[in-house]
Amino acid sequence: MRSKYLRGHGGNSGKVMLVLISILLGFIVSEIGYRLYLYSKDVNARYRVSVIAGRTIANIAQPTGMFLPNETYEWLQFDEKGTFVQETKFRYNNSGWRSEFDYHREKASGEFRIAIIGDSFVASHLSNVSWTDELAILLSNDPKLKSTGLGSISVYNFGLDGAGLDDYRQVYCLESKHYDPDLIVLNLITEALPRKRNDFFYKTCPEIERASLTPPAIADRLGAWVETLHGVEVFLMCTVPPPQFGNPSCSPSNAFLASRETATDKTKMDEAKSFVAKTYLKSKLLWSLHIYLFDLLPNIDAFSRTARVISDPNHTTAADLERAVAVIRYIATDSGKPTFVFRSPTHLDLTEDRGEICAQLVKGLHGIPNIRCVDLRNDVIGELPDKNPNLYYNQNMHYFNLPQDGHFSDQGSQSYAKATYHTIRSYLLSHQQTQ
Fold this sequence. Notes:
The protein is of the alpha/beta class. The protein has one domain (49-282, 316-433): Rossmann fold, CATH 3.40.50.1110. The protein has 15 helices and eleven strands. It has helices spanning 2-43, 120-123, 131-140, 143-147, 165-174, 205-212, 218-222, 260-263, 266-287, 300-311, 317-335, 356-364, 377-381, 389-396, 410-433; strands at 49-53, 71-78, 84-92, 112-118, 153-159, 183-188, 224-229, 232-238, 250-257, 339-343, 371-375. The strands form two sheets. It has a six-stranded mixed sheet. Helix 12 (356-364) links the parallel strand 10 and strand 11 (371-375). The longest helix is centred in the first third of the chain and has 42 residues, at 2-43. It is globular, with a radius of gyration of 24 Å. 35% of the residues are buried.
């Protein structure tokens, strides 16, 4: 009787094991099939790209990136079929930063200067409106601020595409602090927290400034480069040199550099896009630990983050916040100036409640004077509702360049300028009253 029971029990276990193995094999085959589909799709140049038209720097060895001073650029966006969908134009000023206003090291008498450091949401290349310029205009034309006796107000934009907190410190040390700001704003999006430079050994401004003067410059290791393919330059992001596709630390973005004439030549663009896919995606799709089938699930970003955590044991939310707090603390302490941290909403905030980031930063920065963290999500796109999320999404998606791109649209930039204006205005009015 006992042996009969064991045989039956063992038979059931074997059946369960067989089912589990079948499910696993089916999943593996599906994952391989989906990877092959992705590879075929991108090799055939069926993916979205942006093309930057204008004079750029081939070897980017400066903290301001690839753009030249006193130049106007066009940012052209194309959909998966190569159809032109959107264009923005912007100017880089005398100091090599995105602004219609020139920057000067020496201050005018009575001038109050605000330095804003951030990533592409500060650079605002995907908008015809620079929200930092809009902010400067709003503050300068405010009658109540004028009545307080406050002199001129200037806002300096130090936005760098793809910047993480390590880059914020670099930009502060090499650029922002030398303009002697009276107020520093660190504009932060939640997506910037995991951006980590693995070879960033330098923690203080003297170290960063010394490293920038000796080859290889720190900007070389942390910056981006371009590689020319079929007359089109492909924008590479690398953490260590050399800047080429064979370097595993380099990843091509979907941003290319080309003339407007080349950008609108579908044959040339398709050749470059196909080359990138063949060269880069082949090895990534073959060895990546990321489970691409999870991208088909509704909560795509959560699974994408999980995959990156698995591939990088040092990537955790706690570690990201600890690194962010260290950088913010250093900038505030080194400058001795009031420092604001603004959390900017992105298109992901249309579907996710991510307000806990600012709360955790505030907790980590507790006890450090002159630091204030402000979550501006609700000021721009309102609260995420418990009901009718689709209606909320549709009513607010115009603040971003959806579905083509997740950065601020012209309306989004104007709305964000107003949100930052109200916060800074309140501070300036209270600050003047205490003088």
